[in-house]
Amino acid sequence: MAEQDKHAPQFDAATGQSTTGHDWDGIQELNTPLPRWWLGIFYATIIWSIGYWIVYPAWPLVTDVTRGVIGYASRIDIAQDMALLKQERAAQSKALTEASFEQIKADPELFRIATAQGKAAFGDNCAACHGVGGGGAKGYPNLNDDDWLWGGSFAEIQKTLEHGIRFAGDPDTRVSQMPAFGRDKMLDAAQIRAVANHVRSIAGLSTEPKADLAGGAKLYADNCAACHGDQGKGNREMGAPDLTDAISLYGMDMASLTETITNSRNGVMPAWQQRLDATTIKALTVYVHSLGGGQ
Amino acid sequence: MSTADADDLPLFAPSKKVYPQSVSGPYRRAKWIILVLCLGIYYLLPFLRWDRGPNLPNQAVLADIANNRFYFFFIEIWPQEVYYFTGLLILAAFVLFLMNAVAGRMWCGYLCPQTVWTDLFLAVERFFEGDRRERIKRDEASWSFDKAWRKTAKHAVWLVIAWWTGGAWVLYFADAPTLVKELATFTAPLSAYVWIAILTFTTYSLAGIMREQVCTYMCPWPRIQAALTDDDALNVTYRYDRGEPRVSVKQAQRLRSTGAPAGDCIDCNQCVAVCPTGIDIRDGAQMDCIQCGLCIDACNTVMTKVGYPAGLIAYDTDDNVKRRQAGQKPVYRPLRARTLTYAGLILVVGGAMVYQLATRKMADISVLHERSPLFVKLSDGSIRNSYTVRLLNKRPESRPFALTVSGPAGARIEAVGSAATADLRPVVTVEPDSSREVRVLVTVPADVHLDKSQPVTITASDLFAGEVVRAEDHFMAP
């Protein structure tokens, strides 16, 4: 037993198949090699991969990668596809660039292109604040409704898109500033409360039982009416919201109103002129206008 | 070990080359006529024109994949109507079953593309290489110029037919005359060439090389057919009651004069020689038999020559052979529960399809509720929901549809970018044979009580033709 040649093939008595020669407590493993065809394919793939290294980008280097002899890169493909797409859409883009809003509105095909392109641009640039469908959120206007701070006509929407609102980087940006009546000590807490109650009353909402409505009305006339109007109907020239309609950007409950009057709200929207081309802004304008609130 | 022996056996019999001999007779004539008709339709149908007006293609049969339309003479099918093809397939299955119940494998023998093209390829083979004996002799002989050119010519013509077959196939998917020009000038789309190549290969290999093996080994129908058939279905049958024992004409006279039994089969083997699948019909019904009836033609020719009555091989049933042997009259029952049921099912399915087609809507509407935001409150407190409405116009002229809404009280409807009729119904015009998507706004006044969700129906009515289609969705509120 001890003198047996370790490398001589050993065979399993029951099946006649050769064994690996390994022996664990009398249990031996049958030698079942991989099929030849399988091994052949396996080695072929290894050889194939060498060709792959040569032809395609493969090995990472310190600052770069091996480029491969045919100079292929998936990024080049994408660049080509994008260029091709641009070329295919050139006619459409040209038509869109040259058409007026009225022409776009009157031509179903142009309108379809504009809204489709606008929707894509909206998803990329606007949805982060205004929501996917332009539904908005507190502080971010809902673009589907008919209440506009700065105007909902094609021209006004386009201007807002181009120059933004209270955007420091654009000299033509839409500007208005509501004072922080509380923070800047223009009104005290009781006065703010009275004004808030007055605003709720002109909006048709309930007021607090012991609210000083007369005092509130007087304070409103002195401090707020210049922008929001005597009746609280707002003024689009300076982005002053209508306080009487059913829509509000920051909330009409006492707490929200108190906060608004105390510290003011001055939301900012970037100017897109610097980032998007005129045609895209035009498409965005048509899309936003088409959401339901366009005027 | 015995299992190892079983493992080593071949999976199927080695193929024997079949040299079918030419034959003439009524069945052969019927097969030629069917061949010319079927191939004529297949090769020429794409060129048939059918005027559908200025906006639609004028090809009678066209599968316009690029534009998602299928045209069949006066019928135009949109992708969502492909279930018609399901009806066609069911109909085809029942017709196949009915044929089988009446006269066995008529499909295999006369109509199957495999049979038709194989017949054509055999005719070409016969033209270049001669009839059965000549072909066998030439194949056994060593290579010579004569053998080489005949074989080369045969394969060349086969390839041309196969190529033409593939070429005709792609013509069903594009305007045929245009595509022929493009193919000839090598400006056709790559896919056309690829499909022609694929079908050239399949036609050449299936009809030229594999032939009867397709029927014997590849086709599922013989297996299914065997399970579907019954005792009354007519089959190509060797009437062994009349044929056995097989003796020559002279010997039969001698035997009959002594009163010994003698059959009409003179064992001339003509039935075997003409058989395209290389079987002997006298072995009885068998799966390899495609029931083409060529052995009937061959046998009748011989019977007439030797002065025996025809019909030793004929369309008959095994039961009738047994009846005649027992001295009874043969019974034929083409009208029986099985055939009547199949015929009835064909009528029902066919009728349902015709009804479906005749009453189908030429317009359609689908509505998708905008989810972001679900609803919008307007400045006067009214609630508005937005929907994406897609209108479908299957007619070859443009049609204006007026939209109306029903559901919550006081609901108003408008379509973004669309004008409205005098009674404030928005009008959406859909181009011929196309669909159009519009954003539709439905607004309910503030004083109407609304649940979180209530059903709403949007209806589109063709302003001229009056066709009305509607779709249901929901109106959401806070």
Overview of this structure, please?
The complex is a heterodimer of chains A (295) and B (478). Chain A is mainly alpha-helical. Chain A has helices spanning 36-55, 74-88, 90-98, 101-106, 108-125, 127-130, 154-163, 189-202, 213-223, 225-228, 254-263, 278-290, and strands at residues 19-24, 27-30. Chain A has a two-stranded antiparallel sheet with strand order 1-2. The termini of chain A are far apart. The mean pLDDT of chain A is 91. Chain B is of the alpha+beta class and 478 residues long. Helices cover 45% and strands 18% of the residues of chain B. Chain B has helices at residues 2-8, 26-44, 83-103, 106-111, 113-129, 132-140, 145-171, 176-184, 190-210, 212-218, 221-228, 240-243, 249-257, 270-274, 294-306, 318-325, 337-359; strands at 61-64, 69-72, 75-77, 235-238, 313-316, 363-369, 376-377, 383-393, 399-406, 412-415, 427-430, 434-444, 453-462, 468-476. In chain B, the strands form 4 sheets. In chain B, strands 6, 7, 8, 10 and 12 form a 5-stranded antiparallel beta sheet that branches. Chain B has a 4-stranded antiparallel beta sheet with strand order 11-9-13-14, with no helix packed on it. In chain B, a hairpin with a 5-residue loop joins strand 13 and strand 14 (468-476). The radius of gyration of chain B is 33 Å and the shape is elongated. The A-B interface holds A 105, 108, 111-112, 115, 131-136, 142, 144-147, 242, 245-247, 290-292, 294 and B 370-373, 376-381, 384, 386, 416-417, 429, 436-437, 439, 441, 446.
